[in-house]
Amino acid sequence: MEQEQPVEGECSTPPSHPESSEMEPKVFNDPIHGHMEFHPFLVKIIDTPQFQRLRYLKQLGAAYFVYPGASHNRFEHSLGVAHLAGQLVRSLKEKQPHLLIDERDILCVEIAGLCHDLGHGPFSHLFDGLFMPEAKPEENWKHEDMTVKMFDYIVEELKKQQFDLKEKLQSLSRNTEGDDLVFIKEMINGPKEKGKYLGRPSKLFLYEIVANKTNGIDVDKFDYFARDCHHLGIKNSFDHNRYIKFARVLKVKKKMQICTRDKEMSNIYEMFHTRSSLHRKAYQHKTNKAIELMIRDALLKADLELNISTAAGNVKDFTDLTDGVFETILHSKNWKLTGAGLIEAGLILQNILSRKLYIFLGETKQTDRLVQENKETWKSELAQFDESLQEEDFEITIATFDFGSKDKNPMDNLYYYKKSDKERAIKIPREKVSQFLLPERFSEKWIRVYCKSQDKKSIALEAFKKWDTEKSSGPV
What we know:
The chain contains 20 helices and ten strands. It has helices at residues 18-21, 40-46, 49-52, 74-95, 103-115, 125-135, 143-160, 165-170, 180-189, 219-232, 240-246, 265-283, 286-306, 308-311, 315-319, 325-330, 340-353, 368-372, 378-383, 457-473, and strands at 7-8, 26-30, 34-38, 248-252, 255-261, 359-365, 394-402, 416-418, 421-426, 443-451.
């Protein structure tokens, strides 16, 4: 069957002739990567309600209230990750035919990139990092687990529409290794049994493309660094296209691993510096965190009536759960939803829009001594400095800044090759790395203290200063 030319557009349109258009690719014009063409298997997934839901989830959650340009959503990010995943795996196939990467492998990698964020809740990391631990602490809810459930649901729904993704993928090659759907889910959420990959056990390097557990260098970061910097107005000094250009798969300790040219070391360090910069300037911006705490409190107060946390346990209900819950709570009076919790929640959200935010009192660096202390006692310690203060007046968060591997250098797990020997992986000793690139430490934590009451601002500020002095004067 002769394929028509790809259709350019922001989303695919219902075909007039389903049979002839089933194998039609689609092209999306993206401000970051330009024209991105997707295989019809991916288009089938893109056109599902579960994927379209990502249009209504802000990529940076509450940061939109701090950076007005940060209005981009997880929909376009997911398209970008799929696009870059395809670019990287195709580059490896072209440069190294002996790796035996086939079209089936490529599509599985692209689908994993496309679907990796399906399980995010409203306001992204706020949902699983702040809201769910308090609403359902016993469930240990993670968006990666929900992503797998959403993907399974999509596969079953497509099967009802006479589109069996598993059969379609199997028809592309005679390769019988592993299960394609298991492979896709392992790339997103890791194997069920640690270290035991069932999808592509002979091509473990493919697991480093979407979510790299070895050193954190993956296309997910490539896209959100470029996309977030673009919308935030922050410069991105990392060039992901250079990394893709120089990436090669080589044997490292009896396993095949993605490596890069030795001259690319500075570019990789720039990637981790960019990550750290984004966390400092945006992701963990003190005002952003104040707003996140307020949205969390609003969601918790509204949960009894809106069943937000309950919806997180069911794929059908979760499909309807988006950032739109903010508007639902804010305008609940207009819809005659007037429970006490909703009214209080609406007032909190109205305060965000009126810029009556939780007040940032200050921050102190977390020392070894503070790590050993019980964080839960800090609020009571702050409250004791004035009789008008209560524990509930304070909110404490810990801001962590690192390269993605806690206190370790992720570059320790990255191997290189030289132009003169492209088939041998090497390590570059730390002493041969420019000191301009290496930080003294790879992780630091700051304790941030907020006051919820506008009326107690000055008293709470004095309490924080005294508390900080006591903590700073103690043994480190």
